[in-house]
Amino acid sequence: MTRTVLVTGGAGYVGSHCCKAFASAGWNVVTLDNLSRGWRDAVRWGPLVECDVRDPLAVREALETHGPDLVAHFAAFAYVGESVENPAIYYENNTAGTLALLNAMRATGCRHILFSSTCASYGIPLHVPIDESHPQAPINPYGWSKMIIERMLEDFGRAYGIGSVSLRYFNAAGADPDGEIGERHDPETHAIPLAIEAARRTDRPFTILGTDFPTADGSAIRDYIHVNDLARAHVLAGEMLLERRGTHVFNLGTGVGTSVLELIEAVKRAAGREPVVRRGERRAGDPARLVASFAKAERELGWRPQQSDIDFIIKTALEWRDRHPPA
C-alpha cells in the first residue's frame, strides 16, 4: 500500500526538497503551506492545501481528507535576527503553530510526525563535534521556539502516543542537482547564496562577520550539509518511525567544518571569480565552531551524507542561482 505524507511548509526550501525525496521513494505527497514564505511553483509532487498551520479547522480537514500516515513538519520562521527583534511571531508561528498541528493530529488519529529542528537549540557548544547528548541552551528565540517544540513532542508521545523524530539540522545548503528547486529566501541571510551573489555582482559585497575567532584563519567554522542529504534523512526517519514508534532525536550534519574564508575560496573556484567581500564585526553570541556528530543517524537510520562536499554544494547552488537570478 502506498503511504502518504503531509508536508507542512512544503513550499519552502528544505520542505520542497523533502517533498521530492518522499515522492521519489514512492510516497504520496500532500503539501500544506500558507505561502507566506514559500513558493507556489515549488509544489510539484502532489496537491497543495493552502492554509495556515495555526488554523485548526483547515488543518484538521486536510488530515481527514488525505489521511496521512506521517506528517513532516517544516512550517516555521527561521531568521535568527528577526526572532530577536520580534520574538512574538516566533513563539506564535513556530511553537503555538506546532501545538495546533499536534492537537489536530490527536483529533484525527494521525500518530507520526517528523519535526524540522535545529542545531540552534544547542546554543554555544561546550565541545565539538556536537552529539545529541550535548546540553540544549538556546541563545535566541528561534532556538528556544524549536527546543520548546521538542519538549512538547516528548510530552505528547508519553501522554497521547504520538511518535516523533526531531531532526536537528546544521547548515542546510545547496540545491536540487536536477535544477527543479533551490534556495530562495526573502531576505536572503544564508552564507552560500550571499557569497555567490557577491561573486556575480560587485554591488552586493559579502560581509565576513568576524575575523578574530579562535580558528585557524580567524573566521567562523560551520557544518554545511546538502539539502538533498537532509531530504534523504527525512525519508529514512519516516520509514523508521512507522516501524518503531517513540520519541527520537538525530543530528544532521557532516562532521566536517568549513570556515567562512574557506567558503569564499570554494565560491571563487566554482564561479571563476572572487566574491567582493568586506569585513564586519562578530554577531553577539556567534560560536567560533559548530560541527555535528552524525554517528547516531548513521547507526540507527543507516544514513550518512553523500552529497555534502563543499564544492558540490556550491556547484548546485551556483547553477540554481544562475537559472533564477534574484532581482
Automatic annotation (TrEMBL):
<dbReference type="Pfam" id="PF01370">
    <property type="entry name" value="Epimerase"/>
</dbReference>
<dbReference type="GO" id="GO:0003978">
    <property type="term" value="F:UDP-glucose 4-epimerase activity"/>
</dbReference>
<dbReference type="InterPro" id="IPR001509">
    <property type="entry name" value="Epimerase_deHydtase"/>
</dbReference>
<protein>
    <recommendedName>
        <fullName>UDP-glucose 4-epimerase</fullName>
        <ecNumber>5.1.3.2</ecNumber>
    </recommendedName>
</protein>
<keyword id="KW-0119">Carbohydrate metabolism</keyword>
<keyword id="KW-0413">Isomerase</keyword>
<comment type="pathway">
    <text>Carbohydrate metabolism; galactose metabolism.</text>
</comment>
<dbReference type="InterPro" id="IPR005886">
    <property type="entry name" value="UDP_G4E"/>
</dbReference>
<comment type="similarity">
    <text>Belongs to the NAD(P)-dependent epimerase/dehydratase family.</text>
</comment>
<comment type="subunit">
    <text>Homodimer.</text>
</comment>
<dbReference type="GO" id="GO:0033499">
    <property type="term" value="P:galactose catabolic process via UDP-galactose, Leloir pathway"/>
</dbReference>
<keyword id="KW-0520">NAD</keyword>
<feature type="domain" description="NAD-dependent epimerase/dehydratase">
    <location>
        <begin position="5"/>
        <end position="253"/>
    </location>
</feature>
<dbReference type="InterPro" id="IPR036291">
    <property type="entry name" value="NAD(P)-bd_dom_sf"/>
</dbReference>
